C-alpha cells in the first residue's frame, strides 16, 4: 500500500477587503488622536495588501509602517515585544536590528485567527503607543482579537 504525500497546503490569509477596512479604521483612530500616520497591512507571508498615508504623515514612516506589519506577521508577535526578547542577548541585540525590515519598537501587531497568523498591521507616525493604539483600532474594526 502506497501513501500519497500532500503536495500543497492551505494557508489562511486576511482578505484584501478586511485589510483595506483595517487601514481605514486605523486612520480614523489617528484623526481622533490628532496625529497623522501611515498604515500598512500585509498577509501572513509579509506581502503588502493595503496601505494608507494621511496627508502630512512623515515620509520616512511609510517604510517603517510596512516593515512593522512585515515584522509582526513574520514573528507572530507585537513589535513592542521583540526588544524584550533580545534585550539580554548581546549578539541578538546587536544583530537583529541590522536585519533589513525588522522593527523592534511598538506599532506593529500580528493578525491572528484561530491561532494562526493571517497577516500583520503596522502603523507609524505617532509615538509607539499611539501607533499601536491605531493598529489595535484597525484590528478591532474588522473583528480580529488584539494580541497582548
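^ C-alpha cells above, recovered residues below v
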Amino acid at each position: 500500500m502506497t501513501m500519497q504525500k500532500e503536495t500543497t497546503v492551505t494557508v489562511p490569509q486576511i482578505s484584501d477587503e478586511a485589510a483595506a477596512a483595517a487601514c481605514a479604521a486605523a486612520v480614523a483612530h489617528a484623526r481622533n488622536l490628532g496625529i497623522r500616520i501611515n498604515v500598512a497591512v500585509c498577509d501572513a507571508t509579509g506581502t503588502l495588501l493595503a496601505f494608507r498615508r494621511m496627508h502630512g504623515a512623515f515620509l520616512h514612516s511609510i517604510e517603517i509602517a510596512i516593515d512593522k506589519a512585515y515584522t509582526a506577521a513574520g514573528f507572530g508577535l507585537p513589535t513592542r515585544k521583540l526588544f524584550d526578547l533580545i534585550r539580554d542577548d548581546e549578539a541578538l541585540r546587536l544583530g537583529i536590528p541590522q536585519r533589513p525590515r525588522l522593527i523592534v519598537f511598538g506599532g506593529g501587531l500580528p493578525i491572528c485567527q484561530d491561532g494562526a497568523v493571517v497577516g500583520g498591521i503596522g502603523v507609524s507616525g505617532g509615538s509607539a503607543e499611539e501607533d499601536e493604539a491605531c493598529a489595535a483600532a484597525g484590528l478591532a474594526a474588522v473583528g480580529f482579537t488584539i494580541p497582548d
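The chain is about 40% helix and 20% strand.
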